[in-house]
């Protein structure tokens, strides 16, 4: 859940002479960039509708970041999804807009005597407008809830904040962040008929190894928990997201997978694959 979480997008910057790692969920210090992310999720038979065959979700997201000042990044998310007819009881293929998100952040480096290591922290506030209007959006949101909940939950306003820190050296980058989100009820989320507001807590841990100056191997753990409005009786979701990322001049790209760890999510899907590419300026 992004505000905290979500699928892939902005690279970390640093004075360290190494390529910048690219994470699936929340990144902490973005360059000015425009990024296109594609993610494909195979949904298991009967995951959302008993008796329905396997379904497919293809998600496309345009992201951008611009640093208003050296410490103040502004981000915009414009997500779309395409779902097959087996996803919901409507038995209709759907191409639709997700929720448009705007993020305002604060990033700062902590001075240290060790010039080979950079430490920093990050805070952000994000708002998601309820531009996802199709009922299929709720199934898309719950297929990968640790990164996609806020982006696709149908007819839902969301506001969230995150706080995190990172460390970068010549060989490794580490990050961690926690977040809180408030959701104004969607008609299609679990228990929405009797509850109007939902609360979520999110967390992430990430580690990158700078294999070469331009290539990183990354591993990320994403977690999300919330009230019954959001997740029903299964209130804790988590996933791991290994990825490989690289850069060439102003171009950045990454290939990743998101693997659910909790039983409820594994009953929905086994893995989501993603590919993203971006231009920094």
Tell me the name of the CATH homologous superfamily. monomeric porin ompg
- Beta strand %: over 45%
Derived from helix and strand composition plus strand pairing, the structural class reads mainly beta
N/C terminus separation: 27 Å
Helix content: under 10%
β-strand number:
13
How does the overall form come out from the CA principal axes? globular
Give the count of structural domains: 1
> Number of helical segments?
4
The CATH architecture comes to: Beta Barrel
Largest sheet: 12 strands, antiparallel, barrel
Radius of gyration: 18 Å
CATH class: Mainly Beta
Can you tell me the CATH topology? Porin
Looking across the biggest beta sheet, what order are the strands in?
1-2-3-5-6-7-8-9-10-11-12-13
Average the pLDDT over all residues and give the rounded result. 87
| Uncertain ranges | 1-19
What does this structure look like?
This protein is mainly beta and about 280 residues long. The chain has a single domain, classed as Porin (Beta Barrel). The protein has helices spanning about 135-145, 145-150, 230, 265, and strands at about 35-45, 55-70, 70-85, 95, 100-110, 120-130, 155-170, 170-185, 195-210, 215-225, 235-250, 250-260, 270-280. α1 runs antiparallel to α2. The longest helix has 8 residues, at about 135-145. It is globular, with a radius of gyration of 18 Å.
């Amino acid at each position: 859940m992004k505000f905290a979480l979500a699928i892939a997008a902005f690279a970390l910057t640093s004075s360290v002479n190494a390529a910048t790692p690219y994470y699936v969920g929340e990144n902490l210090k973005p360059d000015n960039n425009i990024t296109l992310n594609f993610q494909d999720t195979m949904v298991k038979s009967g995951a959302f509708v008993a008796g329905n065959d396997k379904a497919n979700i293809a998600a496309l997201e345009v992201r951008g970041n611009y640093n208003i000042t050296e410490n103040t990044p502004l981000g915009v998310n414009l997500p779309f999804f395409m779902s097959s007819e087996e996803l919901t009881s409507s038995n209709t293929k759907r191409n639709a807009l997700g929720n448009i998100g705007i993020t305002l952040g604060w990033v700062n480096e902590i001075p240290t005597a060790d010039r080979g290591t950079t430490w920093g922290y990050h805070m952000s506030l994000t708002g998601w407008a309820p531009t996802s209007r199709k009922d299929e959006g709720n199934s898309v949101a719950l297929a990968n809830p640790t990164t996609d909940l806020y982006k696709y939950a149908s007819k839902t306003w969301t506001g969230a904040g995150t706080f995190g820190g990172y460390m970068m050296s010549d060989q490794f980058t580490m990050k961690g962040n926690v977040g809180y989100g408030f959701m104004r009820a969607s008609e299609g989320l679990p228990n929405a008929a009797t509850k109007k507001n939902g609360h979520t807590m999110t967390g992430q841990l990430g580690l990158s190894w700078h294999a070469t100056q331009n290539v990183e191997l990354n591993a990320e753990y994403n977690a999300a928990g919330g009230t019954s409005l959001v997740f029903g009786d299964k209130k804790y979701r988590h996933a791991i997201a290994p990825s490989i990322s690289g850069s060439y001049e102003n171009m950045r790209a990454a290939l990743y997978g998101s693997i659910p760890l909790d039983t409820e999510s594994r009953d929905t899907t086994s893995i989501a694959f993603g590919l993203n590419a971006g231009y920094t300026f």
